[in-house]
Design a protein that fits this description.
Elements (H helix, E strand, L loop, with lengths): L1 H36 L12 E26 L12 E2 L4 E4 L4 E3 L4 E6 L11 E19 L3 H15 L5 E6 L2 E13 L9 E9 L10 E15 L6 E3 L2 E3 L4
Antiparallel strand pairs: 1-6, 1-10, 2-5, 3-4, 5-6, 6-9, 7-8, 7-10, 8-9, 11-12
């Protein structure tokens, strides 16, 4: 009797332990399930729909060209007085005094020197003097022909609406990338360049402070099809296949 009672007690204790483990696992599982199944509602950011400026852009590079340039080839032995290079000069002032004549500036500009290459013998006895008016600059760029119709159509619209104003252009100079210079499309070529498959475009910009040196490489962004319309952030747009959804609050 004592032995059977002892076995019965062990069996009962064993089943109680098993029952306790099962109950504990169930309670713990329900606790975590309850805790993690209830996710917080997602945050919602509401933005006001506003009128914004939009435009298409063409980005390229070009070289700064002064609006006026005049070059003179003079013999060094004819020069009577030192030439004041890199200085501004007014139209009618003497650029250089020579033995038999004086060279007079036909327009306002800056005097510069451009020597011949060292392998040319005349460089020892001659020099080239440049008079450049860089208060306005031209930038000639080539744009892919796929954009030619867009540029032509938008340029025609701008000219009709504002007289002589062309497409707006943003320009950056590698010497001062923090500053943005503004220009306009001044003219277009009449035909596509068949070798480059591109259209030549001339841009004009003011350079009154002479911050941009002639010959500088410029980053050019031509803006076309400019418009003002309602706009929202990209994050507000929901895409599902070919359909676009926007939630309105």
């Amino acid at each position: 009797m004592k032995r059977s009672t002892k076995i019965t007690s062990i069996i009962i204790i064993f089943f109680l332990i098993i029952t306790g483990v099962v109950v504990a696992r169930t309670m713990i599982g329900n606790h975590f399930k309850k805790k993690f199944s209830k996710r917080p509602l997602p945050g919602i950011i509401v933005k006001t729909v506003e009128q914004r400026n939009f435009q298409n852009k063409i980005e390229t590079f070009g070289t700064a060209i002064p609006i006026k340039i005049q070059s003179y080839n003079v013999e060094k032995y004819e020069i009577l007085e030192p030439i004041k290079f890199n200085q501004k000069i007014k139209a009618g002032e003497v650029i250089v005094k020579l033995k038999n004549r004086n060279i007079v500036a036909p327009f306002d500009g800056v005097i510069g020197k451009r020597n011949f290459s060292d392998d040319i013998k005349v460089s020892e006895s001659s020099l080239i003097i440049d008079l450049e008016d860089a208060t306005k600059l031209f930038v000639d760029v080539d744009i892919p022909e796929i954009y030619s119709n867009f540029i032509k159509e938008n340029l025609s619209v701008d000219v009709k609406l504002s007289g002589n104003k062309g497409l707006n252009v943003d320009i950056k100079f590698s010497g001062n990338k923090e500053k943005n210079y503004e220009g306009i499309v001044n003219s277009l070529a009449s035909r596509i360049n068949t070798n480059k498959r591109s259209l030549a475009v001339r841009i004009k910009l003011n350079n009154l402070n002479l911050e941009i040196l002639p010959g500088a490489l410029l980053e050019v962004t031509i803006k076309y099809n400019e418009r003002n319309s309602l706009g929202i952030p990209d994050t507000s747009v929901i895409l599902e296949g070919n359909k676009v959804y926007i939630y309105k609050v």
